[in-house]
């Protein structure tokens, strides 16, 4: 569960997200070689779709599957974990049915609830996220940037351009 009303925010632009997702792909190159190239990506929807596209392009992975999990029903309040769609049988059967050679991609790990749920489906898969918070970090094999547990990450697809009042006006209020 993410703490309601986290103290800090970490807004991420499209450029920064692209850079960080590419950095994730760089970090995954040795792991990819170790398994003779990842056979498939399983993207954890919806947040994992964007980094999965970037990593797939960089590592030349052509088989992209989704696992659809929902738990944050009220944007920052976590509820029960619901699996809306499982991994397709053809991908679940790869690597002896345990996920070896499969790369699972999500945008972030927070409490680790989502990662724990997806890992149970493919225990030997490699789990990668762009961002990680301390509580979920032990569940991830590779990530790029750690933020504190009381930080809420705002992704570029959740934001838009908006007027910013001058700093001095805010300070006067
Ligand atoms: O480690 P946890 O505490 O489980 O949180 C991490 C998950 O939360 C977010 O997904 P969310 O359930 O909000 O759905 P979305 O990807 O569709 O936005 C994020 O994309 C991760 O999948
Ligand atoms: N956008 C976003 N979704 C989350 N789900 C769990 N933690 C987070 C977070 O920090 N940001
Ligand atoms: Mg998600």
Automatic annotation (TrEMBL):
Subcellular localization: Cell membrane
Keywords noted in UniProt: Cell membrane, Glycosyltransferase, Magnesium, Membrane, Metal-binding, Purine salvage, Transferase
Stated family: Belongs to the purine/pyrimidine phosphoribosyltransferase family. XGPT subfamily.
Listed GO CC annotations: plasma membrane
CDD domains from the UniProt entry: PRTases_typeI (cd06223)
One Pfam family here: Pribosyltran
Function according to Swiss-Prot or TrEMBL: Purine salvage pathway enzyme that catalyzes the transfer of the ribosyl-5-phosphate group from 5-phospho-alpha-D-ribose 1-diphosphate (PRPP) to the N9 position of the 6-oxopurines guanine and xanthine to form the corresponding ribonucleotides GMP (guanosine 5'-monophosphate) and XMP (xanthosine 5'-monophosphate), with the release of PPi. To a lesser extent, also acts on hypoxanthine.
Any one Gene Ontology BP term: purine ribonucleoside salvage
Top EC class of this enzyme: transferase
Classification via HAMAP family: XGPRT
Annotated binding of guanine, by residue: 110, 153
Residues annotated to bind Mg(2+): 107
The protein, known as: Xanthine-guanine phosphoribosyltransferase
Required co-factors: Mg(2+)
Catalytic activities: XMP + diphosphate = xanthine + 5-phospho-alpha-D-ribose 1-diphosphate; IMP + diphosphate = hypoxanthine + 5-phospho-alpha-D-ribose 1-diphosphate; GMP + diphosphate = guanine + 5-phospho-alpha-D-ribose 1-diphosphate
List of residues binding 5-phospho-alpha-D-ribose 1-diphosphate: 46-47, 106-114
Pathway stated in the Swiss-Prot or TrEMBL entry: Purine metabolism; XMP biosynthesis via salvage pathway; XMP from xanthine: step 1/1; Purine metabolism; GMP biosynthesis via salvage pathway; GMP from guanine: step 1/1
EC number, UniProt record: 2.4.2.22
Segments forming domain Phosphoribosyltransferase: 14-163
Positions with a binding annotation for xanthine: 110, 153
Topology with respect to the bilayer: Peripheral membrane protein
């Amino acid at each position: 569960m993410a703490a309601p009303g986290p103290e800090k925010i970490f807004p991420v632009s499209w450029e920064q997200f692209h850079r960080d997702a590419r950095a994730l792909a760089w970090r995954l190159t040795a792991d990819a070689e170790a398994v003779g190239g990842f056979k498939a990506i399983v993207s954890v929807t919806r947040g994992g779709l964007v980094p999965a596209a970037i990593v797939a392009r960089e590592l030349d992975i052509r088989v992209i599957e989704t696992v659809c999990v929902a738990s944050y029903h009220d944007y920052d309040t976590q509820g029960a974990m619901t699996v809306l769609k499982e991994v397709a049988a053809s991908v679940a059967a790869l690597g002896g049915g345990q996920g070896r050679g499969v790369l699972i991609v999500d945008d972030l790990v927070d409490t680790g609830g989502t990662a724990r749920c997806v890992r149970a489906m493919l225990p030997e898969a490699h789990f990668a996220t762009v961002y990680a918070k301390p509580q979920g970090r032990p569940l991830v094999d590779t990530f790029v940037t750690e933020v504190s547990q009381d930080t809420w990450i705002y992704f570029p697809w959740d934001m838009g351009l908006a007027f910013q009042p001058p700093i001095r006006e805010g300070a006067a209020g």
